[in-house]
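User: Show me a protein chain along with its predicted structure.
Assistant: Here is one chain, sequence first, then structure tokens.
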Amino acid sequence: MSRKITEVTPLEIKGTTEKPILIAARPTITIRQALKTLANHNITSLPIYSHSSDKVVNIVNLGDILNYIVKEAVGDEINPKALESEKVNNLDNSIEAVMTLDDEKESYRIFNSDANEGLKKILEAFSRGIHRSLVIDYTNQTKPYLLTQTDIIRYVFSHPESIPGIDINASLQTLGLAGRDQKIVAGHVNESALNVYRRMAKKELMAIPIIDSENRLFGTLSVSDLRGLNYTSIDNLILPVEEFLTTLPNSATVLNPVIAFPQTTLREALKLIVDHHIHRIWVVDEDRKVLAVVTLSDLFGFFAKL
């Protein structure tokens, strides 16, 4: 008998898949070292251990580090002529300097979960914008690992019976996931990438659509695009976002974002998310004007009600 997604355990989601070794750092790691660690392992977030044990207690992401470096380099200057990020004096401060910018920020607190308990609490946490959970097997049969939003979405797509009561063949509009009343925060092609990222940070967003002079979807900019971030990439943020996107390793993807329409079904949307390894879909009309965004957090809010 199939079970609801709220009752499935993290170990069932993991299955026989070998999760990567947990990459984490001591709180004494410097900002410079943290940036290098993230780039070397091609990851976007870094769990931080406690001062007194091997317990992971915090997590920082590339967006947090970028915001710190930019603040140190140019403060609030709107259109700086250069960033010279590698010359920032405080790169040798500990990573805790980044986390103290906003110690109430939920993304800095690691969410722990029991490998053998149902996903209900994880789904609720993910619906609030937490993107990963540290899974601990208290029977000590499995090493700690990170469970991501994407892991659960893949499971739901493969096991649609785990979301009973939700018509997976209904449209996003019918399900209330693509309403026209969403207020979309966007960036414009002629703005600097720096100011678009600043807007994302201010609004606490993980991604933002880039629109052209006719308000049509041109591309997308997200925190995950910072993967492999280095000082050259940071210095390029002064470029118009249209040009900045072409400098990214995944430029073909960010300049051709995956889209859906109000009539796209939930099944089709889940397939797009799984196939393209994305965390959101921009919902557009026939003129490619953005009507809404469906994020993984939105979907988890939906699933958590089961």
